[in-house]
Amino acid sequence: MAGLLMAGLTRAQQPERKEVNLGIIQNGDTVVFKNIKEVIVFPEREFKNKRDYRRYSRYVQKVKKVYPLAVEARELLVEYQPRYEALEDRGDQRKLMKKLEKELLDKHKNELKKWSISDGRILLKLINRETERTPYSLIQDFRGGFSAVFWQGIAKLFKNDLKAGYNPDDEDKMLEEIVTLIELGYL
Question: Is the pLDDT of residue 93 over 90?
Answer without folding.
Answer: no
